[in-house]
Amino acid sequence: MQLDQPLTEKEFDELDKFLLSDRSSDDAMTMDTLHGYLTAIAIGPETIMPAEWLVKVWGEDASAAPKWKNAKEEEKIVNLIMRFMNEVLVTFEVAPKEFEPLFCEHEHNGDAILDAEAWCWGFWEGMELRPGSWQPIWESDLAPLMRPIYLLGADEIEEAELKEVDDPAKAHKLAQQIEANLPAIHKFWVPLRKAAVQTVKRDEPKVGRNDDCPCGSGKKYKKCCGADAGAAE
């Protein structure tokens, strides 16, 4: 199966069950949390390689990695996660206004209520991979668009802010705002993200000169960002 193929319903359920199984740690992300996490990585200020973000899916550190039956199972599950990510990437590239966050839904007083807390927690985890890089949007006119994600996803909020999330109906309205706000958040980062991927970061793992360039250009490192680095030295 090609990585550009969206998950079938059966594959979605398979990944969901694995994340909830005993072979994944108690800290492993659920599907809604994973979707929020991948969304932040997909639309955020910097390109982050799977080798870095994938380990966080299973928990806080490398020791939380699943108990794989064999290499084939690991390859299959990782492939499903990568395709799940590509669904997010492709939707924002082709039709950002049609993107639908994977929120939970439950009944409250006879009404269907959206619960975006787990999704927002995942988004916040994605932001925490590059916390300083997200600062420009918080300092921009779009900062209010980020507030619902902060209220539902941050580890801690101010005591005075608790009244904004203290019942399901309020949380439902915040979830609706998040879905409406995401295209604009994505649009904010598009020009900045393109510029950022041209920068060679010294804190990233060393890249061999004949390896594919981590910026995603498809060129060898020595003929892309590596050439720029060599010229600067």
Brief account:
The chain is mainly alpha-helical. It has ten helices and two strands. 52% of the residues lie in helices and 4% in strands.
What does this 3D model show about the protein?
InterPro entries: SEC_C_motif (IPR004027), YgfB-like (IPR011978), YgfB-like_sf (IPR036255). By secondary structure, the protein is mainly alpha-helical. 52% of the residues lie in helices and 4% in strands. It contains ten helices and two strands; from the N terminus they run αααααββααααα. The protein has helices at 9-20, 31-43, 50-53, 55-58, 71-94, 117-127, 135-138, 143-153, 168-196, 225-232, and strands spanning 104-108, 111-115. It is globular and about 55 Å long. 26% of the residues are buried.
What is the element layout, followed by pairings?
Layout: H1 9-20, H2 31-43, H3 50-53, H4 55-58, H5 71-94, E1 104-108, E2 111-115, H6 117-127, H7 135-138, H8 143-153, H9 168-196, H10 225-232
Antiparallel strand pairs: 1-2
